Amino acid sequence: MRRLLLGAVTAAGTALLGRSLSTPPGSPRFHGRTAAVAATWIAGGLVAGPPPRGTARHPVAGPVALAVGAFGVFYGCALVAHRIPPLSRAIAGVLAYADRGSGPAVYATTLITGAAEEVFFRGALQSSVTRAPVATSTAVYALSTVATRNPALVLASIVMGTLFGLQRRATGGIQAPLLTHVVWSALMLTALPPLFETPAPPG
Question: What is the pTM (predicted TM-score) of this model?
Fold first, then answer.
């Protein structure tokens, strides 16, 4: 029964995610649909069972430091991707939602969605898998992201999904990956748009 529930939530959240990224940047519908995605992940994660908080030697400093390190790696990759037209267009397509939206609303949407993903994918989903839980939760996370039809987001979901899954396994709960996800997302949202912004036309 629990696996059926998780499958239904995954399907619903994936469909909503695809619809949210199909709306034009700057559209009010984007925030509404993204909020629906976050609500689906949180509700599904909580209904399947309260996710464990976990324990860590450095419950805040450790996840934050890891987020900063991951951001550094991704920023370096972004400098390279900026010179590869297909990847540059894919990243710019995502960042357009930050450029054309309200700053606080975009930050709130991004951070809440990131936290919601941890509640579901590293909380309920990873807890329900007995064989290769990290690989399985990462695979489902990446497949869900495919609905965005954005290769940059899919690649990021594979890399970061693996990192978050390993954190979940190491600490026994979602607090560490949730903190890392939120801080990493905030750093990416702050630093990447200037790198991929389109120069204004002359005159």
Answer: 0.91
